[in-house]
Every structure is written in structure tokens, then in C-alpha cells.
Amino acid sequence: MYGIPNMKLDKSIVQRRIDLMAQEGVKFVTKTAIGIDIPATQLIEDFDAVVLCCGATKPRDLPIEGRNLKGIHFAMEFLHANTKSLLDSGHADGNYLSAADKHVVVIGGGDTGTDCVGTSMRHQCQEPGAVRDPATAPGHPSA
Predict the structure, then answer these.
(1) CA 73 to chain centre
(2) Domain range spanning residue 113?
(3) Residue 19 domain flag
């Protein structure tokens, strides 16, 4: 829920859907490693249907010069903290990475990159920008 900025999906809609599915009998099990916390065979034995939903929360770290400099963050770290702080306190708790008054460059693309640019703009950053690998651009043979 926290990885999707409110500008794209209001969390009351997400919560309403979760509540409806729970009322229908869907069992939500989070923070569970299949094969470690519970064997896969047990899922097949205990349930008629199993749906595994995974998010891409493990970032791809780039081994490039300057990677460990201050102010460089992974997208989901930025988005998750921002949305959680917004929902918890309207950002009053300060538990998020602020892009206010900063020059922002997003390396990457797609929905996540766009979410980072949009969130930075809502923080009133100085100048948002994005750098995308041409090999992943629409129309490129490898895309």
C-alpha cells in the first residue's frame, strides 16, 4: 500500500477492497517467506487456492562512482516512507525523505520513476529530472 503514492491511488480505496476481500474469506498473510516460515507443501495442503503476490522492493544497486554519497536513495525507500508518513501524520512526524527545495534526479523509469518525480514535485523540489537507460526506452529492441 505504501509504495503507491496517494496521488495515484487513494488508500481508502485500497482499504475498502481489502476489507471486502477479507469479508469474503480471503486470508492475507504478509511478511512471510514461503519455504522458510512455512513450507510450500503446507499451503497446497491447507488451501484450495494459493495466490503469491510479490512486489519489487529489492532495489538493483548500481556499482558506480558516487553511489554511497549523501542524498542518494532507492525509489521504494523514498516512496514507502513518504506515503506512510503522509497517512500517519500528514508528514508532521518527519519520518520521510523530503525533496523540498532540492534538485532531484531520478535514475530509472517506468511507473516507479514517474512516482518519484511526481512525489518530488509535490514536495516542491527545485528541479525534477529523470535519466533513463536508452536500452529500456519504449521502442528499443531490448525493451
Answers:
(1) 13
(2) 11-136
(3) yes
